[in-house]
Amino acid sequence: MNGFEKNRLLGMLERKTVPLGMQCFAADAALIEVLGLTGFDFVMLDSEHSGANPRAIEDLIRTAEQAGLIPLVRVPDRRNATDMRRALEAGAQGLFIPMVRSAEDMQFAISATFFPPQGDRGICPSIRAANYSFRSFEEYAAWNNAQTLLIPLIEHPQAIDNIEEICALPQVRMLAFGAGDLCYAMGLGTQMMKAPEVQAAYRKVLAAAQRHNVAVIGGPILDPTPEACRKALDEGVRVFCLGLDILGFRRFCEQTVRALNLGMEGSGYSRPEAPVSGFR
């Protein structure tokens, strides 16, 4: 339950401690518990591309809290106040806002998620985040307005054009760079960070974030190595979000099949040929 303490992600950044999280699409409590047991600090619960509904998200937030993880939720749409409010009422300490295009998109999110005078969100004490209490609601509202993270996903060409205005908003203390959607929107397919145009956009976002003291969430998502992580840190990433639960499991499965197939070579036994890898 909510103890109305300082958001641990903000505290870690103030101490120059690097937070680590993972994107979770499977909506599986056991996987979230494993993250907590292995040294992760936060989890991004996806409700944009996964089938997780508000009730499922609430239970996953409970699991994350029990596992010692900071629960963040990626909402389905940048302009749906109900989804944003429900995620926060369930106990999310921050929201990833997808496909942000402008500062106006973030102003919509601010209005939807913060209580007056910062926003227009309506009150309700009968929610988990407020400990189901009238008595503590004012404390919860103050905590929400001070500690909730609104994280724009910079993954659209218009967001690159408007990055200065987005970063200038005081409620934007973190952002995430989405190379995949941006690359596709630019007509460059799935090259992601291999595309020079995406690399240039990334540099522009990093520079704007640094000017406005906005922490950048990123890192080598699919292939984390010590060298790649240090490179991302040197470039300006301050919060690492590494791995996607389902793709991580796929990679493990592919590696397992490959290990067995290679081990059988020359043994007189055979194995079916492995399917084509899902990774480039």
Question: What's the topology here?
Answer:
Blueprint: H1 8-14, E1 20-24, H2 29-37, E2 42-46, H3 54-66, E3 70-74, H4 81-90, E4 94-97, H5 103-113, H6 137-147, E5 149-154, H7 157-161, H8 163-168, E6 174-177, H9 179-185, H10 196-211, E7 215-218, H11 226-235, E8 237-244, H12 245-264
Parallel strand pairs: 1-2, 1-8, 2-3, 3-4, 4-5, 5-6, 6-7, 7-8
Poorly predicted ranges: none
Placed side by side, the strands forming the largest sheet appear as 1-2-3-4-5-6-7-8
Structural class: alpha/beta
The geometry reads as: globular
> What is the subunit arrangement here?
single chain
Walk me through the structure.
- The protein is of the alpha/beta class.
- Helices cover 45% and strands 15% of the residues.
- The chain is built from twelve helices and eight strands.
- The radius of gyration is 20 Å and the shape is globular.
- The mean pLDDT is 96.
Outline of the structure:
The protein has 12 helices and 8 strands. It is α/β, with parallel strands linked by helices and 280 residues long.
Keywords for this entry:
alpha/beta; 280 residues; single chain; 12 helices; eight-stranded parallel β-barrel
